[in-house]
Each structure stands twice: as C-alpha cells, then as structure tokens.
C-alpha cells in the first residue's frame, strides 16, 4: 500500500524534529504476526451507541480468577494483519478482565465492538478475546483475553500504569457560552455525542498534568531548554483542548459541564532514569500522540459541523507539535544516554503494533459529521499510521545517530 500524502508529510516532519535526514526501511522492527485486535461489528451492535472501552462505563477490573467458567475455550477472536509491517515482542500474557456493565454480557463475538480494545479502566490493550463471558465479582462480565498493559488517549497521566482523570461535574468555567445542539439529531444521539466529547475532554484535561510532569522530568535529567519550553507549551495547549472538548460536551448535553478535581494524591511520582523516561516517551508520545494526530485528522476530514471542525483543527495542529516533541525528546535521550537508552527505546517500539488509542467510536453514520469515527475507520487509520509513519521513523531513529533534534519555532514558549 503506497503511503498517503498525509503520512509522507507527517513522517518527514517527525524525522526533522528528531534530527534525522532520511527514512530507513523498517526491517529492524519487522516481524511476522498472524493476528491483531478486532474492532469489527458484533452481533449486538446498536446504531445509537458508542464504544469507548466499556459499555455504560467500566468501573472495575480483575486479573484474578475466572468466576467459575467451565469447558474448553471458544474460537479466538482475531483478524489477519493486512498492513504488511508488524513488530515483534512475543505473545501477550493471557489473563481475565472483568467489566461491571448494565444489561446482559456481550457474547464473545460481540465483546470487541461492545467493550472496546482498552480493557476496564483503560489499563490494557486487548490483543485477542479467547473465552467468555462468565460471571465475576458483583456480577461483572468477565472474559479471558490476551492483553498488554497500557492503553490511553494521546499523552495520558498515569499512576501505577493506570490513567488518572477527573470526574465530570456541572461547571460554567470551562465551556463558555453554550452553542445550540443540532435539532436534527435524536436525544439518544446527542447524549452519545455528549458522552464521547466528555470522555475526550477528561483525557485532554489530564494531559495538562502529564506535560507538567514531563517538564519536571526533563529538568531532572538535564534536558536542553528548547525541550523544557516545548513541554510547557504543550501543557498550555492541552488546557485549550480540554476547554474545546468540554464546550462540545456541554453543547450536546444541554448544560455546562467541566472537570472536577484531578485525583493526584499527596505526591507526583517522577522518572529520573533517562532510559525509563525515553521508553515512556516512546509509548505515550512517539506512538500515542502520533496516533492521536492521525485519528484527529481523520475525524476532521469526516466532520461537517463548524464547531467540531474548529476544535479538531486546533487539536490536529497542536498534537502534531506534541508528537514532534516526543520524537525529539527520544532522539536527545539516545544521544545523551547511548546504548542503554537505545536498547530501552528499541524494546518500547517492539510493542508498537499492539498499542492503540482508546477512541470513542460509533455505529451511527450520522455522528461522523460531529467528529466520531466508526470502529473500523478508527482501527484502519491507526494501522496505516503505524505502518507508514511510526515504524519507518522508529527504524530510522534506531539505525541512525540522530543529530541535535530541532524544535520548530512555533513550539517555543
């Protein structure tokens, strides 16, 4: 498959940010694989529902017992990889994950679309669905799955490998003046849009804290001033992204909403190992934020609503600079830390094919005008970005000795 114009331009932009001059064929990371995650339609699809990693909102998870299921596992729910470029890293561990949901448990075939790829509380990227459903604690719906740790939107704020987000509360402070909700949409569709944009808003809001922590870690590791300045600029960008998303959530909800307190606790853990920081930046930035740009651009291309398009246009440009920051940070870390950092970065990229954004998707075609993709479209754009942007850039980064990374002037404070 020939690279798209967007992929080629974005790839060149990231390479320049990392101080690299050319693409190296991604043979270093290429490996054979016969299955990837399913986003395909399930038998319980509802045209008016969204899928965001949990039906009616997951509230608990379990990696313990199987709730007493019996019999042999059913057919593994997987699809054939069609990108032609995948990464190694070995098979993901098998474990049991449980969702507390309203209503009956989705069948094994319907679960990938109904529950999403990110596990309860967005703690895991689910590679394959093996068995279930069966009853878990408090009547939860449990499934045996193959899953990797880590799944999030853009640059999530993580504590103990779990994302931290604020609850949704009534608030006039974030949305500003409410726009008119589109009268042509049913109440159910407006509610689905409100939930989807509130989900995005919570993660954008948490990203403010994530970039604040990035700036502290960069300072603790002796990073150059342009990287620190870009991290602070990114935190300010995320404030605006959160405001835009809360405004859209409020518009579709019909009342002003915003974030409650972010549950940070009494201390903020920092990474002071250069290799660990570089590996985390690969996962959260080079992969997560690069995917976020591609998904937001696909949402923008499909959207027709003026307010949604204006918000997404801002997010696409800002997140592009955030992805540049991630790649330039990793390049600096490799130059500074040498082989130890390079090995950590290579290991982090080895799991790239198994990482996705937790994207709120919809089976209702009408919602594409308001920035919501179908599950199939969200999966396709992420696969394409992995194959055409992330893996080629990763190969070049690991094979070339990067020069001093360049931060675009627009990203300076």
Account of the protein in words:
The chain is mostly helical and 413 residues long. Helices cover 43% and strands 10% of the residues. The strands form four sheets. A three-stranded antiparallel sheet has the order 2-4-3. It has a two-stranded antiparallel sheet with strand order 1-9. Strand 3 (124-135) and strand 4 (141-149) form a beta hairpin. The longest helix is centred in the middle third of the chain and has 34 residues, at 187-220. The chain is globular, with a radius of gyration of 20 Å. Mean pLDDT is 77; it is low at 24-91.
Assess the beta-strand content as a share of residues.
5-15%
Query: Stretches where pLDDT falls below 50 for ≥5 residues?
Result: 24-91
Mean pLDDT: 77
Instruction: Give the termini separation.
Output: 39 Å
Number of strands: 9
Secondary-structure content class:
mainly alpha
Set down the secondary structure blueprint.
Blueprint: H1 5-17, E1 50-51, E2 94-99, H2 111-115, E3 124-135, E4 141-149, E5 158-159, E6 162-163, E7 168-170, H3 187-220, H4 225-253, E8 257-259, H5 274-302, H6 306-337, H7 339-349, E9 361-362, H8 375-399
Antiparallel strand pairs: 1-9, 2-4, 3-4, 5-6, 7-8
Helix pairs in contact: 1-6, 1-8, 3-4, 4-6, 5-6, 5-7, 5-8, 6-7
């Amino acid at each position: 498959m020939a690279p798209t114009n967007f992929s080629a331009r974005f790839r060149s932009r990231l390479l320049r940010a990392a101080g690299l001059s050319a693409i190296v064929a991604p043979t270093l990371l290429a490996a054979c694989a016969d299955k990837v995650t399913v986003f395909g339609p399930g038998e319980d699809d509802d045209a008016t529902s969204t899928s965001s990693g949990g039906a009616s909102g997951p509230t608990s998870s379990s990696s313990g017992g199987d709730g007493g299921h019996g019999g042999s596992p059913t057919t593994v729910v997987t699809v054939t990889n069609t990108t032609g470029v995948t990464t190694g890293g070995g098979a993901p561990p098998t474990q049991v994950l449980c969702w507390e949901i309203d209503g009956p448990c989705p069948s094994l075939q319907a679960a990938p679309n109904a529950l999403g790829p990110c596990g309860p509380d967005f703690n895991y990227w689910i590679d394959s669905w093996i068995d279930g459903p069966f009853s878990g604690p408090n009547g939860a719906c449990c499934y045996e799955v193959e899953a990797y740790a880590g799944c999030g939107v853009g640059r999530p704020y993580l504590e103990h490998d779990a994302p931290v987000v604020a609850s949704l509360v009534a608030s006039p402070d974030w949305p500003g003046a409410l726009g008119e909700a589109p009268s042509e949409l049913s109440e159910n569709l407006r509610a689905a849009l409100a939930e989807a944009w509130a989900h995005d808003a919570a993660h954008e809001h948490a990203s403010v804290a994530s970039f604040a922590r990035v700036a502290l870690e960069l300072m603790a590791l002796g990073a150059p001033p342009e990287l620190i300045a870009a991290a602070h600029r990114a935190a300010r960008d995320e404030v605006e992204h959160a405001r835009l998303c809360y405004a859209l959530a409020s518009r579709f909800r019909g009342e002003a909403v915003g974030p409650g307190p972010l549950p940070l606790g009494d201390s903020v853990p920092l990474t002071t190992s250069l290799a660990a920081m570089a590996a985390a930046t690969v996962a959260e930035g080079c992969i997560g934020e690069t995917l976020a740009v591609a998904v937001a651009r696909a949402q923008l291309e499909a959207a027709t609503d003026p307010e949604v398009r204006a918000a997404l246009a801002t997010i696409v440009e800002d997140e592009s600079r955030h992805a540049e920051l991630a790649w330039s940070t990793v390049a600096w870390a490799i130059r500074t830390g040498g082989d130890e950092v390079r090995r950590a970065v290579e290991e982090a990229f080895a799991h790239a094919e198994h990482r996705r954004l937790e994207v709120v998707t919809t089976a209702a075609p009408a919602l594409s005008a308001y920035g919501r993709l179908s599950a199939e479209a969200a999966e396709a754009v992420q696969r394409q970005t992995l194959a055409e942007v992330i893996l080629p850039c990763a190969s070049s980064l690991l094979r070339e000795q990067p020069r001093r990374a360049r931060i675009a002037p627009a990203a300076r404070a």
